[in-house]
Amino acid sequence: MTTTQLKQQFETLFDQEALETYFCPGRVNLIGEHIDYNGGLVMPCAINFGTWMLLSPNEDNVFRFRSVNFEETYDIGVQTAYEKTGREWFNYPLGVLHHFVADGKQVQGLDVLYYGNVPIGSGLSSSASIEIATAFAFNQYFKTDYTKLELVLMAKSVENNFIGLSSGIMDQFAVAFGEEHKALKLNCDTLDYEAVTANLQNNVLAIINTNKPRKLAESKYNERVEECHQALAALQQELDINNLCDIDGITFKQHQHLITDPTVLKRARHVIEENDRVKLAAVALAEDDLVRFGRLMYASHLSLQNDYEVSGAELDAVVEYSLTDSNVVGARMTGAGFGGCAIAIVNADAFEDYRKNVIEYYTQKIGYAPSVYATNISDGVHELV
């Protein structure tokens, strides 16, 4: 759907023109999975799929939330606090609104329309995209002077405290701070980051949606967070650390005897070794060595499959096929797992062949088809002129 079509739809819904239009991308994580809540390094990038948000003020002092993607609508007046109303999509912007009024910011009623082309529940951060789009747009429109980092922290709080999901900060950070043709090497503990040039050369970034939706809040995501807390507590018997990622793989091997639960041990091993892989991946990109980067992608997936156990037959099938295709530099699951998406770096000239072949392989193995897209690395949230 084009911006022009969205503006026409806005006018039809609200009987007025949209005053402002914003876009916030989704994201993929190139490497560094399940690290963000363990204080380590991740390497996400923004993509050219995302959320469009159109708004105009109304005279009724009411927030009217509408979406092209969902039938559910929500109207609510200006209040001093808001509460989650269930599981509908509009709880994400409602949570952002709650933070604005809880901070004492002056707001007024708005007519708001959203449209997203990020597959819902796919692991490409549709929720972070709508949160940051809303926070950025409200900040611009109400002239509330939050910094971009404050908006990121606000959106993370919405996810954790309003929605109730124990996620880290990577998703919101990536869609806010993303840069075209660059990956963000982000320290999730300090929030220091470096924009690393990600030269894909003659390749595209393929996104393979398994079409197995996974409801993150209902998955074993929170269970993995707890297992990491258990591993950290065990290591803290001898090590002065605040996060699992405060140590490297060598130090972990010297102290892994402290973790007596074999499952918890596997979880910790993935996290610590994955953190090391991100450091190696940044060096590979800096040296323009995509082949080495691709090997690290495959190693990451293997660890997520065997040690962290968050992939599953669907994601594994995508990577299994990719390993056989000489036009693929590297592939791995991305996001929290339990379904969702995989990514692959694929020769641009061979993308259509890759798309056809991976769909065929996956369908034979799983019983239904995935969706495969070519994307590029794009800028973070911004207003559309």
Question: Main β-sheet: number of strands, strand sense, barrel status?
Answer: 8 strands, mixed
End-to-end distance: 17 Å
Structural class: alpha+beta
Query: What general form does the structure show?
Result: globular
Q: Residue share in helices?
A: 40-55%
Averaged pLDDT, please?
A: 94
From N to C, what is the helix and strand string?
Answer: HEEEEHEHHHEEEHHHHHEEHEE
- Secondary structure tally: strands: 12
Molecular structure report:
Strands 1, 2, 3, 4, 5, 6, 7 and 12 form an eight-stranded mixed beta sheet that branches. This protein has two domains: 199 residues, Ribosomal Protein S5, domain 2 (2-Layer Sandwich), CATH 3.30.230; 178 residues, Alpha-Beta Plaits (2-Layer Sandwich), CATH 3.30.70.890. It is 41% helix and 22% strand. By secondary structure, the protein is an alpha+beta fold.
Keywords for this entry:
385 residues; globular; alpha+beta; Galactokinase_bac; ATP binding; 12 strands; 2 domains; magnesium ion binding; GHMP_kinase_C_dom; 11 helices; galactose metabolism; 4-stranded antiparallel β-sheet; Ribosomal Protein S5, domain 2; Alpha-Beta Plaits
Give a short summary of the structure.
The chain is built from 11 helices and 12 strands.
Helices and strands in order, then pairings?
Layout: H1 3-14, E1 20-31, E2 41-57, E3 62-67, E4 74-77, H2 91-102, E5 110-116, H3 126-142, H4 148-163, H5 170-177, E6 182-187, E7 193-197, E8 203-209, H6 221-235, H7 249-255, H8 262-286, H9 290-306, H10 313-324, E9 328-334, E10 341-347, H11 351-366, E11 371-375, E12 382-384
Parallel strand pairs: 3-5
Antiparallel strand pairs: 1-2, 1-12, 2-5, 2-6, 3-4, 6-7, 8-10, 8-11, 9-10
Helix pairs in contact: 2-3, 2-4, 3-4, 3-5, 4-5, 6-8, 8-9, 10-11
